[in-house]
Amino acid sequence: MEDEEGPECGKPDFVLLDQVTMEDFMRNLQLRFEKGRIYTYIGEVLVSVNPYQELPLYGPETIARYQGRELYERPPHLYAVANATYKAMKHRSRDTCIVISGESGAGKTEASKHIMQYIAAVTNPSQRAEVERVKDVLLKSTCVLEAFGNARTNRNHNSSRFGKYMDINFDFKGDPIGGHIHSYLLEKSRVLKQHVGERNFHAFYQLLRGSEDKQLHKLHLERNPAVYNFTRQGAGLNMIVHSALDSDEQSHQAVTEAMRVIGFSPEEVESVHRILAAILHLGNIEFVETEEGGLQKEGLAVAEETLVDHVAELTATPRDLVLRSLLARTVASGGRELIEKGHTAAEASYARDACAKAVYQRLFEWVVNRINSVMEPRGRDPRRDGKDTVIGVLDIYGFEVFPVNSFEQFCINYCNEKLQQLFIRLILKQEQEEYEREGIAWQSVEYFNNATIVDLVERPHRGILAVLDEACSSAGTITDRIFLQTLDTHHRHHLHYTSRQLCPTDKTMEFGRDFRIKHYAGDVTYSVEGFIDKNRDFLFQDFKRLLYNSTDPTLRAMWPDGQQDITEVTKRPLTAGTLFKNSMVALVENLASKEPFYVRCIKPNEDKVAGKLDENHCRHQVAYLGLLENVRVRRAGFASRQPYSRFLLRYKMTCEYTWPNHLLGSDKAAVSALLEQHGLQGDVAFGHSKLFIRSPRTLVTLEQSRARLIPIIVLLLQKAWRGTLARWRCRRLRAIYTIMRWFRRHKVRAHLAELQRRFQAARQPPLYGRDLVWPLPPAVLQPFQDTCQALFCRWRARQLVKNIPPSDMAQIKAKVAAMGALQGLRQDWGCRRAWARDYLSSVNRFYKIRNRALLLTDRHLYKLDPDRQYRVMRAVPLEAGGPRPGGSRLRLHPAEPARGPAPRLGGAQAGAARARFPLRPRHLHPTLAQPLSARTRRAPRPPIVRPARAANKPSESTRLLAAPASPAGSPAASSVRSTRAPLTRWGPDYKRPGAPTGDRSPSSRSKRSPEEAVPLCPSLPRPRSGPLFLSTGLLALFLPGHWGRLRVHL
């Protein structure tokens, strides 16, 4: 903490002062204030000085620095106290409270705002909608309550004229789930009159200066506050303190928006504005005496009856009833007979003012109750949701001393006496008693006990409040002067009470009016004028019945007691003083049941100037707040105390003898061993059940040691837990893998069994399992099945090939070679295209079918007649767009519409043909011929192609394909056996079918060199290169160096 601030900023804790004197205390306070350090500790008590300016000490970044930290880990700050309160509530499940005290203008309201902002910022990490709604209501409620309960005074621009205690409910996760606001003693007399330099409540000026012209016209108001008696005093003053954002105009918009966020309906907001306007009009009503009778009995009338019309309209009540309630009142006689008694001008003014004060007080209470109805926890069941914990924030008026102090100042100062008594009891007296109970020897500290002052005010029968209640309830005329004489009689010997009658030489007090009480904060002189009336707080029943019968539901809900009949006998209501005393007793008991944290606020100067600290003024506040006595108690005593078990639970990891569990005789011995290891035994004292630590530095040292070890312990726990999780996961994985292994075995066995069942008949010829369907394998057997399929294909091929004669093996090899050469060159090379009909046959005029053949070279396309020795019927040159060697294509179109796709003539590297007819497929069996050699003097004789039997078989044509010339050594030409007339042999021994043996074809009688190809007909030109294709029987290929044949089997 000192490392962050430095010694030039003074001591961050007054307990660390070298000497505990008022001069040293003020010197340290002055030094820290000049350095911008407005917060200082006294142990766990925070001292705050109002800077009267905006300082960069707040915001999300600062909240993050203090969140989760210990009280002494960071420089003194409001966030540190709020964090300590929240941690005590969340971790120890204890109800806590923050008591903010100080005189008016010391910054109590601003401190409560920052505490609320911190709590709202650190809660609800999961962003639950209900929690966010509660947080918004908590934050916005401050703005609304300030508008209706705060006012500008000579000592503070935004002084709280009521006491506020807010309970915030939290669930077991530490998120706010609701809240409740308690208000104490609203200074409603401010509605009627203010001191010079002060203003009425902010709500009136915000309504006049912030409303639109249309709304003001609707409310019959003018924008100038000086027009109205209740706001004329503060008309020339503005609420601006630090920035233009605090102007009345902008504050009105902020309050309206806050009421909308909280849950006020637009109708309720309009009702609030109408009630405020009615109060302003009511204050301008004047009474005059007239000579006429009638309704205005005793000659009393309203000077300006238009105001009565405005009040009746704004309160939604009949005009004649409003006028009658102002001018007279109805009383019930002993025989329950109703009598109407007219007012005098003074009585009418008193009734008007009482009505204005009561209406504003009921309005303020309705606003508080409306906020509470929104903040109440919804649907909470302790048996289901667990016990809720509470953080209380007390922001109540400070000690006040004015030139003229009346009943309100008396109650406010009594409240501060009660709070000081609680502070003394919890911080000073209770601490000394605890030291004595634990057997700790220490030097007793003298302090001022204000119990005698509290007893002077609230003692039964003889206290000031008891005497005042007796004066209010006594029959006859009891004046304030008689009340003062009774006080002098009862307390003439009291050390803290005096008056002019008891001390005639004191001319600062007047006879029959003033008395003085010596408060813990100083002497205060009170004027008894108005004590009885303010304590009685009397309002005629006529106004209650009038407002209860209003048609405005909001106003009607504020006056439930107006439904009582005038003749009904009720108990005497409690006086204002008694109600306030009871509320203070309940408040103190509530605070005493919680773990308190204190914020003591100091006002630096009376001028409300930034950067100025009036030493005399601050010295007086330090004295009456008891801060110096608090330092002495902390110095003489101990800064912290903890039970041994709790101390060990937090710090046992810092000692090897206590971690993880000690084996010593008791927790006290274990704590002693821990402190000896750290060398801190000289700064502590051992009680019977608690350890007392004198210096905060000892706690800081232990916290630092613990902070260094916590990550190691966390890693150890994480390692053990992660190991446990890993072992659990390993066991699960082993079980999973075992199940998977057995399941895979089952799948493999089932698949193998299915394979065995399907392939039982695979050895049967002639198909050898060709049509068998392989079952879908498991993923793990996919490579195995691929291998099996390859092996099966090789086995089946072997079974088929081994039955082929050796003489046909060359044809099989050629066929395989052709298929391999052609299959990958084009996506569809025509081997599987269906041959739907005979595209080459023609029908003559006698309806006879004539077979035709096509011969394709690299230069011409020839139409041939197979029945006449393949005579050329027509030749078409292919010079322009014909097929070329190396991939040319030609599509044939029949003369009449075809029932199937037209065949395509195409080529790639070698020619091939494979036809699939509608009935059954055909197989191509190429036979590789011997290559022509230069040494061969004569072309070899090709094998004889024997004609096939054409009985009962239709005439068909073969598909024609064109291909470029193949290189030497590749599969060459083939001959085709047709289903119709076979093509005769060719070569040197060519003989025409049907010719006698020994006859030679003319083409065969000519001499040819071995390098020349054998033409089919003498009339055909010799092809220079490329294949020749014949259809309807034989496909002859003539290639340079090779020749062959291709046979088609049905």
Describe the structure.
With 1050 residues, this protein is of the alpha+beta class. Helices cover 40% and strands 13% of the residues. It is built from 30 helices and 29 strands. The strands form 10 sheets. Strands 1-2-16-3-12-6-7 form a 7-stranded mixed sheet, with helices on both faces. Helix 6 runs antiparallel to helix 13 (345-375), helix 10 packs antiparallel against helix 13 and helix 17 crosses helix 18. The model is unreliable at 239-245, 293-297 and 880-1050 (pLDDT under 50).
SS strand fraction? 5-15%
Q: Round the mean pLDDT to the nearest integer and report it.
A: 76
Low-confidence stretches: 239-245, 293-297, 880-1050
The amount of helix comes to 25-40%
Q: Strands of the largest sheet, in order across it?
A: 1-2-16-3-12-6-7
Computed Rg? 58 Å
Main sheet, how many strands, which sense, barrel?
7 strands, mixed
By secondary-structure content and strand pairing, the structural class works out as alpha+beta
Calculate the terminal CA-CA distance, rounded to whole Å: 106 Å
Topology, element by element:
Blueprint: H1 2-5, H2 22-34, E1 39-42, E2 45-49, H3 60-66, H4 78-91, E3 96-101, H5 108-122, H6 129-149, E4 150-151, E5 159-160, E6 163-170, E7 176-184, H7 202-210, H8 213-218, H9 248-262, H10 266-283, E8 287-289, E9 300-302, H11 305-315, H12 319-327, E10 328-332, E11 338-342, H13 345-375, H14 382-385, E12 389-395, H15 407-438, H16 451-458, H17 464-473, H18 480-490, E13 497-499, E14 514-519, E15 522-527, H19 531-536, H20 541-548, H21 553-557, H22 576-592, E16 595-602, H23 615-624, H24 627-636, E17 640-643, H25 644-651, H26 667-678, E18 684-686, E19 690-693, H27 696-758, H28 782-801, H29 809-823, E20 842-843, E21 849-850, E22 853-856, E23 860-865, E24 871-877, E25 889-891, E26 904-906, E27 923-927, H30 1002-1005, E28 1035-1039, E29 1042-1049
Parallel strand pairs: 2-16, 3-12, 3-16
Antiparallel strand pairs: 1-2, 4-5, 6-7, 6-12, 8-9, 10-11, 13-14, 14-15, 17-19, 18-19, 20-21, 22-23, 23-24, 25-26, 27-29, 28-29
Region (Actin-binding): 584-606
Domain Myosin motor: 9-707
Pfam family, one: Myosin_head
